[in-house]
Write a structure and sequence with these properties.
By secondary structure, the chain is of the alpha/beta class. The protein folds into two domains: 168 residues, Response regulator (Rossmann fold), CATH 3.40.50; 195 residues, Hypothetical protein af1432, CATH 1.10.3210. 56% of the residues lie in helices and 6% in strands. Helix 5 links the parallel strand 5 and strand 6.
């Protein structure tokens, strides 16, 4: 026979208001008496006796079963605050039930008091070693039973309170971390757009380049965590434009050789803005990309660390004819190679003071012409493989003026 009081399927917690070193409050006593208690015993007489004692003690939320095979389903469904468990039962032994409860992560902290008629000390020791919270011999004394139950439930109430407090702290930390992350990304975006507004009234270019870079990186196997760093870092690729004169940056016609050399300096400006380095360090940086990566490796923001590499290397070319370092092939950091494709595509497909927006067909054709000379072939393959996603971003983030 199975009897049960209605209860929810959610995890049960005892809540209370109490102060350390003080006697339990009335609220605590009420919460303890409202605790859900499951009695498991193959003898109905034993269940009735224990339930009568619990009634005398003021406990009101009691359910029971005399079929041991139903014990685990009941525990899993009702999530009781306490289980009173017999050891010797015909269907499944109490120690097996106890072992199953302790091995289940969702149930392992459930208090279990063993009620046994076995006087063998070894059996009692085995039960305690198996994880029994407490152990009482039958026939149980009513006052001792109520005292043991009260003590166990008080401990559970404190444990639940600590667990709840810990969860609330974790939620608060997660919430604050999310706020800080949003604020940090907003500052990065503002800095990127501040540079972009120098020659782009909408500032959408930096958003699109970031999105294109993320799409390419995803196709190349970057993890979600790496992509979350790569996208905002790529938005800072042209931050060095802050250091370029308006007469050059906004010139509608073709730049002179001297003006083009000045424009090329924006890569270096971007590096210096994100992490000022000495002239000696700059000379070492020009020797090899790997040395440069070690120089700029620091405990600062991972986004800014990557942004420094991108700002410095996104105008390098696969064949070594790019600027400012003249790196070639895989000596160019992958983040720079990826951003190069994203940046050039957006420049080709967007209107500029010196050119109209090119058609997609023409943009893709120009990119393909740069395979193996301007662009890393593998990066270009990743870009073309995500053509539909690239076009979707181009549409959603299009300039509207």
């Amino acid at each position: 026979m199975i009897t049960a009081t209605p209860c929810s399927t959610g995890r049960q917690r005892l809540s209370f208001t109490s102060h350390a070193g003080h006697e339990p409050t009335n609220d605590l006593r009420r919460d303890i008496q409202d605790a859900k208690i499951l009695i498991v015993d193959d003898e109905m007489l034993n269940i009735e006796v224990v339930q009568r004692y619990l009634d005398i003690g003021g406990f009101t939320n009691i359910f029971s079963t005399d079929h041991a095979g139903q014990a685990l389903p009941l525990i899993g469904y009702h999530r009781p605050d306490l289980v009173l468990l017999d050891i010797q039962m015909p269907e499944i032994g109490g120690l097996q039930i106890l072992s199953a409860v302790r091995s289940d992560p969702d149930l392992s902290q459930t208090p279990v008091i063993i009620l046994t008629g076995c006087s063998d000390p070894e059996t009692k020791l085995v039960a305690l070693r198996a994880g029994a919270t407490d152990l009482l011999s039958k026939p149980v004394h009513s006052e001792e039973l109520l005292a043991r139950i009260s003590n166990v439930l008080k401990v559970k109430a404190f444990q639940d309170q600590l667990s709840l407090h810990s969860e609330r702290l974790e939620d608060a930390v997660r919430h604050r971390t999310a706020e800080l992350e949003a604020s940090r990304l907003e500052v990065i975006h503002c800095l990127a757009r501040a540079a972009e507004f120098r020659d782009d009234d909408t500032g959408q270019h930096v958003l699109r380049v970031g999105r294109y870079t993320r799409i390419i990186g995803e196709q190349m196997g970057f993890s979600p965590q790496e992509l979350d760093i790569l996208e905002p870092a790529a938005q800072l690729h042209d931050v060095g434009k802050i250091g370029i004169a308006d007469s050059i940056l906004l010139k509608p016609g073709k730049l002179s050789q001297e003006e083009f050399e000045q424009m090329q300096r924006h890569c270096g400006f971007g590096k210096r803005i994100t992490d000022p380095i000495s002239e000696a360090d700059a000379k070492i940086l020009r020797q090899h990309a790997e040395i440069g990566a070690k120089i700029i490796d620091s405990s600062r923001s991972p986004i800014l660390e990557l942004a420094k590499l991108i700002a410095l290397t996104h105008h390098e070319r696969w064949d070594g004819s790019g600027y400012p370092l003249g790196l070639a092939g895989e000596d160019i950091p992958l983040c720079g190679r990826i951003t190069a494709v994203a940046d050039v595509f957006d420049a080709l497909s967007s209107r500029r003071p010196y050119k109209p927006a090119f058609s997609l067909k023409k943009c893709f054709a120009i990119l393909e012409e740069g395979r193996g000379t301007h662009f890393d072939p593998q990066v270009l393959d990743a870009f073309f493989a995500k053509r539909s996603d690239i076009i979707a971003v181009q549409i959603s983030e299009a300039d509207t003026d």
